[in-house]
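Repro case for the chain-ordering regression, as requested:
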Amino acid sequence: MIRLDKYLADAGIASRRELKAILKSGAVTVNGVPAADGAAKIDPAKDRVSFRGRPVEGARRVTLMLHKPAGYVTSTEDPRDRTVMELIPEPCRRQGVVPVGRLDKETEGLLLFTNDGELAHRLISPRWEVEKRYYARHEGTAGEADAAAFAAGLTLRDGTVCKPAVLRPLGPGESEITVTEGKYHQVRRMMASRGLTVSYLRRESEGPLSLGGLPLGELRELTEEELELLYNITKSNL
Ligand code: URA
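-- result from build under test --
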């Protein structure tokens, strides 16, 4: 819930001070009812706010899940490579969504985008230690000793110490890895430290969110239920 005047100011309608007069004039409605009180709280996800009869867009909180394909860097601009922003339709880009967290250029899978600064901040905080589950194809075959080393907390070749993680061998050259951190090239480096060089990596889930059947390269808005789960778990990690 946010104040109506902040919502309107964020949407670029006018400054907080100018909004006083605008609200008094009856030009703003919430769910069809004129709203004169800038301090009134609204829920941007549910309430319909209009200014001079037109819906106020842009300030709506938008959180999206993309099934990222390989070949795109997770960044808003890049001098050489294609960026994940190229996969976001213009209307969403105009709403100010940015990637949350990072997947390597060659990694596929679940990548979140949001224009909710507070949510983004909470999601990338190291305190948000949610489980991120990956599917990997790799050289060699993982076994019990590898799983035990992951569970104990690996030390990488450069001395980086990783938190305990789960390695589940799926068969020759295939494993599922679950980590709670997001260090640079983490899964690839963890696997390499066991001689299991990764040739393909896909993030299947992040906290309560899963790719499900979302096709490669496509994106969708999170459902109300997913958003609620996300807000709840990030709140408890503050
Ligand atoms: N670990 C990696 O090595 N790469 C990613 O993109 C994500 C996790």
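Ordering looks correct now. Helices lie at 4-10, 16-24, 90-94, 117-124, 144-152, 186-192, 224-236.
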